[in-house]
Amino acid sequence: MNLFLETADYRDLLKSYYEQRKKEMPLYSYRMMGEKLGLDASYLFRVLQKKHHLPAHALQASKDMLQLSGRSSEYFDLLYAASVTKDPAQKEDLLAKAIALRDVQRHTLQAAELKLLENWWIPAVRAYLELNGGVVNIKQMAKDMCPPITEDQAKEAVEILKDVGLVKKLASGRLALTDAHLTVGGPEKAHAVRNFQKQTLNLAIEALDNVPASERNVSTLMLSVDKEAFEDLGDMAKEFRRLVQKRVDSVKYPDRVVQLSMAFYPVVRMRKK
């Protein structure tokens, strides 16, 4: 279910769940789903048709069934509260809070687009084009990269971005960005991702010597944690990444391109109990 992108009514999530289960198991019924929620089949049917709302006692069972927790659970609660309230102002406020929890929209890279991850400067060129209003000046672009790249590399990067549709040519001759955020799916993409991450982490190392402290922000922490804390920190890192993306989405006039790298790894071998 596309929980954080399109859904504006909590009942759409329940209906999507029912349709998916029905597809997987043709004998799945409203009665079977209703038993999980403590509802009779006819009442559940009216809920999915948006003629009724879930009773309060079925909320937690619904979230358990949908396997919602943390931010997704809070999102579901806000959608439910917005649906049942009679106060228009309160409804608007609740929906605004729900929207703030949504993920940013991402463009999923296909196999042919993995060339974007071959070299760090290809995504950097894409961001640079946004920075200078889509003006293509290969010589200046190559010089402005940090560290600088060759003009051939800059030219190739622009062509790759056009080929995969992540920039488009305007009538004015300038280039405009399409999808703002990228993600890569599928186990076969792991090697390309690792290679790209190695490049960006090496850039961070080089920045310690080549970039003034006033133009970078590098900090480290050495931590002793247990399994639960380790998992919590991982969740916090994911949430921080989401908040960074949402904050960047609100920037109207960027004046620089930066790379943010977060790394979380062991420096002492785990002891077996």
Would you kindly provide a written description of the structure presented here, covering whatever features stand out?
With about 270 residues, the protein is mostly helical. It has two domains: about 10-100; about 110-215, Orthogonal Bundle (Arc Repressor Mutant, subunit A), CATH 1.10.10. Helix content is about 50%, strand content about 5%. The chain has helices at about 10-25, 30-35, 40-50, 60-65, 70-85, 90-100, 120-130, 140-145, 150-165, 190-210, 225-250; strands spanning about 105-110, 165-170, 175, 180-185. The strands form two sheets. Strands 1-4 form a two-stranded parallel sheet. A two-stranded antiparallel ribbon has the order 2-3. Helix 2 crosses helix 3 (about 40-50). The model is unreliable at about 1-5 (pLDDT under 50).
